[in-house]
Design a protein that fits this description.
The protein is mostly beta strands. It has 2 domains: 42-192, Sandwich (Jelly Rolls); 199-305, Sandwich (Jelly Rolls), CATH 2.60.120. It has no helices and 29 strands. The strands form 8 sheets. Strands 19, 22, 23, 25, 26 and 28 form a 6-stranded antiparallel sheet that branches. Strands 13-12-15-10-18 form a 5-stranded antiparallel sheet, with no helix packed on it. Strands 20-21-29-24-27 form a 5-stranded antiparallel sheet, with no helix packed on it. The chain starts with a strand and ends in a 6-residue tail after the last strand.
Length: 311
């Protein structure tokens, strides 16, 4: 068994509730001499120990979450901790998602996703390094059946990082003092948030073409007689809203076609671009290289579920 001392003292045994504490029909926390002995259950999140490749999540002494990454590590890789919607939550209920003052997000983002019974994302809230002190207001969406607590790399990591988090999702429209969740027993599932397919074998054989996951490194020392291209495998995305961009370093001037339903719908760049599908549709990204381009570049096309244009 693993016992986690709580902030201010006390112990939560193996991440489980020690005893059900109620007053006037309401769940309350149990304290003694200013120490929290039993969490009240107000923190609805679910997280714990997990490991996938170069990322490790662990629970620190006070019940917070520590996420360590070892470089190099690709973007949009991380963990999901899944949970069913709590019985006390109902459609339209207001929720507040927060992190503690002093928490750190180094190269990762922290997110909560709500899903319906079919696995369609209904709502999300995201913390990145740039908005770590902001509160996130949410409403339980209609049809929500499950929600995921997630941490993901935000951009490719070239240096090892450590982040310390005290996240809290609670009922109501105000932030209250942090306490650890009742669920601290692991269960994290490795996940890749990027919905793009893998690079396939179709297209030009460039002098240098190296692939690692969704990332490709391309180099061409000489000009060509015409346009050249490589594409990613098509993936069928369910109806919904998505965002696409390309993370790229190196020589500029490359073009990225986004093919939707068998045709070029638009071009992707370094900024998020939102698109909506009314029905399940095949989508893929294709690299297009103009004849005059020379140089080398490392590129990662990214398709994420939801609207990321305001993140």
């Amino acid at each position: 068994m693993t016992d986690y001392p709580l902030r201010g003292g006390g112990v939560c045994v193996n991440g489980l509730l020690v005893a059900g504490i109620y007053h006037a029909g309401q769940r309350i926390g149990l304290t003694h001499d200013g120490a929290l002995l039993v969490p009240s259950g107000k923190n609805l999140l679910n997280y714990g120990v997990a490991q996938a490749g170069h990322m490790i999540a662990s629970v620190i002494d006070n019940g917070g979450l520590r996420v360590a990454t070892t470089a190099p590590m690709n973007s949009w890789i991380g963990f999901r901790w899944k949970a069913d919607i709590a019985p006390e939550l109902h459609e339209g209920d207001k929720l507040t998602l927060s992190l503690e003052d002093g928490d750190t997000l180094n190269g990762i983002c922290f997110q909560v996703f709500f899903y319906d019974a079919a696995g369609k994302m209904l709502q999300r809230a995201t913390f990145t390094k740039d908005n770590i002190t902001s509160l996130k207001s949410l409403t339980v969406p209609a049809g929500a059946m499950t929600y995921d607590t997630c941490v993901f790399t935000y951009g490719k990591l070239s240096e090892s990082t450590t982040s310390i988090l005290h996240p809290q999702l609670e009922l109501g429209d105000k932030r209250t003092c942090w306490e650890p969740p009742e669920k601290l027993r692991g269960g994290g599932v490795a996940a890749d948030l990027n919905l793009c397919g893998a690079w396939d074998n179709w297209g030009t054989k460039f002098p240098t073409w190296e692939v690692s996951g969704h990332t490709a490194h391309v180099a061409r020392p000489d000009t060509a007689t015409g346009w050249q291209a490589r594409r990613m495998s098509a993936v069928t995305l369910p109806a919904g809203t998505y965002s696409v961009r390309v993370d790229i370093t190196g020589t500029a001037g490359l073009a990225f076609e986004v093919h939707v339903g068998g045709r070029v719908a638009f071009y992707a760049g370094s900024d998020w671009r939102r698109f909506t599908l009314d029905q399940p549709t095949e989508v893929y990204v294709q690299l297009a290289v103009r004849p005059t381009w020379t140089g080398e570049a490392t590129l990662t096309p990214v398709i994420l579920e939801g609207d990321w244009t305001t993140t």
